């Protein structure tokens, strides 16, 4: 990609200049992620749809790219901001540079930026809208971009366009795809599940008609309250089959049960978030990517808080008393990220076994 001078402009007037590699401008919510590795998995995680993502780790691209790391069909980023981009990666699995990958995916890159300063501003003031543009773009045009209406159809952009299956034999799991990562599907298959993956807006009647033994609610982008149709579908499924939800699926399950969610100040994004499992009496390091959370004040006696964040004590997991259902806020398949969450998938398997 051709390099020019560029800038990130936040809606509060902050400007951060650097080297711009881009074929287009970018406008979206600016968030930061704290992962020290896994940049390609992050880039292809559909949960980042429509966002400008800032990497807090300074050196990005040092081990190149390889299609085997992709977690989605393509990159849904609006823009990418890093401190230092590596031009010459060294790794035996590298099949290309990160710059080549970003050019192919049409993702504007702003490099040579003080990402620590951006992160501090977001942590202090909360998530801010921003644009990545050439340095010489007039302020009037920048302000027009910043005034662009916020997106509310991210799940529609990232969900599968048609139903498909994975795996053979074992328990039949219906997967509601709100922007699912490839390794989550692989994890379910590795536990002996046969999967039918459905577009996000598939009616409950169609899902039940296929006779699943369990239902999986996937991760995904955006505000869960933008999905009333999906919430109603989940409400119809509750109690009829064991349900396991993660990330956006965790939030949608809470809304379907009559609880509330809220937008966090700057969310949890990265692969090093400590979570306490109150039920299992253990602490795990988790991979997370969410800007919304379940409101503890809205809960009642029909649900148990099973997991909490050790960083800010927000809810990271719920177990429902009146149905075979549990959810977690993080990504237990850990791609990228540390392992140690296999027991959650096994819990889901055991629930389906109990039904048989």
Describe the protein.
The chain is α/β, with parallel strands linked by helices and 356 residues long. The protein has helices spanning 39-43, 98-105, 115-125, 139-146, 154-158, 182-190, 204-209, 228-237, 248-256, 342-355; strands at residues 3-10, 15-21, 26-33, 51-55, 59-60, 79-81, 84-85, 109-111, 128-134, 164-166, 171-177, 193-199, 214-217, 243-246, 261-277, 282-294, 303-309, 315-320, 325-328. The chain contains 10 helices and 19 strands. It is 24% helix and 33% strand. The relative contact order is 0.14. The model has no long low-confidence stretch (mean pLDDT 95). Helix 1 (39-43) links the parallel strand 3 and strand 4. The strands form 3 sheets. Strands 10-12-11-13-14-19-18-17-15-16 form a 10-stranded mixed β-sheet, sandwiched between helices. The chain has a 7-stranded mixed β-barrel with strand order 1-2-8-6-4-3-9.
Features:
356 residues; alpha/beta; ten-stranded mixed sheet; seven-stranded mixed beta barrel; 10 helices; 19 strands; 24% helix; globular
Intertermini distance: 56 Å
Strand content: 25-35%
Could you tell me the number of beta strands? 19
Radius of gyration: 20 Å
Number of helices: 10
Provide the succession of SSEs. Answer: EEEHEEEEHEHEHHEEHEHEHEHEEEEEH
Gross geometry: globular
Structural class: alpha/beta
* Helicity range: 10-25%
Strands side by side in the biggest sheet: 10-12-11-13-14-19-18-17-15-16
Largest pleated sheet:
10 strands, mixed
Q: What do the pLDDT scores average to?
A: 95
Unreliable runs: none
